[in-house]
Specification:
Length: about 210
């Protein structure tokens, strides 16, 4: 009886002192974090509800939100998707994060913007002169964003695991492999996977990936 009570107390302590922080990608919502609750049953899972749309805005906003959401926990692990991973690397590199799981991370923002420029036949001179250009697929090209991304130095030293979809149309396998090697991250590639993990098959693969790492 005493042993069971001690186990319960230990479990409660772990729940109180461990948290999974989830950062959604562009167009996502903090409530997506609920999906991960069943994968991390021994700790709290919190989705960060942020407003930033640029890395410099994330650098101003994320540290404060992180401290408010995670300040009372002894252990913090991060799950970040797509643009959320890019923002995390921009804004949370100095935070006490034990481990990170990146799903389809944007690891080469300048190249992504340049690719969108080519799709819309926008030259660097055009973008520099206009400042911003609206695209037919709903994205806004920004000279300030491109310049910032080119000058920005990502210094991410947190133990990280990356999940990448073979058919990701935002980041190439070459770029994500090079980045994973640079930061010493593990890299798992899902055959026929996409940038947006959303189908039942993809979400099941994602869940197994996390559980295998755990």
């Amino acid at each position: 009886m005493q042993e069971n009570r001690q186990k319960i107390e230990l479990l409660e302590k772990n729940v109180m002192n461990s948290v999974i922080l989830y950062l959604h990608g562009q167009g996502g919502i903090a409530e997506e974090a609920e999906h991960y609750a069943s994968l991390f049953t021994n700790c709290d899972v919190v989705g960060l509800n942020y407003q930033a749309t640029t890395p410099w805005e994330a650098e101003a906003e994320f540290p404060k939100l992180f401290d408010a959401a995670c300040g009372q926990y002894e252990s913090v692990k991060l799950i970040a998707s797509s643009l959320g991973a890019y923002f995390a690397m921009s804004a949370l590199a100095e935070k006490n994060i034990e481990e990170a799981f990146f799903i389809s991370p944007v690891v080469n923002m300048p190249k992504l913007i340049e690719n969108m420029m080519r799709l819309t036949n926008v030259s660097e001179d055009d973008l520099r002169e206009a400042g911003t250009v609206e695209t037919y697929f709903g994205q806004t090209l920004s000279w300030k964003y491109l310049s910032y991304a080119r000058e920005q130095e990502i210094n991410w030293k947190i133990s990280t695991h990356i999940l990448y979809g073979e058919k990701d149309n935002f980041t190439s396998l070459k770029d994500v492999s090079k980045f994973a090697e640079k930061i010493g991250a593990t890299l798992t590639v899902m055959k026929n996977g996409e940038h947006w993990f959303h189908t039942e098959e993809q979400m099941n693969f994602l869940g197994r990936w996390i559980m295998d790492i755990k």
